[in-house]
Amino acid sequence: MPEDNKYDLVKTELELTQRQMDKYDGLSVKIRTWTVTLWIGIMGWAFQVGKKETLLLGAFVVLIFWWLDAMNKNFREDYKQRRNKTAHGLKLYFQTSSWPENFFAPDLPLHSQRIAGSLKKFLKLHIALLYFPLIIRT
Predict the structure, then answer these.
(1) How far apart are CA 138 and CA 50, in angstroms?
(2) Is residue 61 left, alpha or beta, with left meaning phi > 0 and alpha meaning psi from -120 to 50?
(3) What's the pLDDT score for residue 112?
(4) Do 99 and 86 form a contact (C-beta atoms < 8 A)?
(5) Residues 6+ apart with CB under 8 A from 84
(6) CA 9 to CA 123: how far, in whole Å?
(7) Does residue 117 register a pLDDT over 90?
């Protein structure tokens, strides 16, 4: 493959991976907004009907959205790793006029560690920081 074509392909992949990361960042904001909105609605409903069982619904909703956010962060992390490899490859190309060994494009993430990766993200403090206090307050 001619070097110009490979450069264009790598540049396009870098842009694509960054757009995917931006998409997942936007989804995370939406997930968190819906979590708080539904939690507040359920808490208001629980106080209105006066049944403690309704509070369990609030905790259940928070857990579902917490898991969705963890999955979202896991997918984002896969794209971030590939974006960093692509950026490193471009940097090396500009410094040495050659590509790193074993570097090829496109090499988009396969998301092979969906459950295990999501579980790790589920337990990370920066993700749990919103959800854990909501469950405690329930």
Answers:
(1) 14
(2) alpha
(3) 77
(4) no
(5) none
(6) 36
(7) no
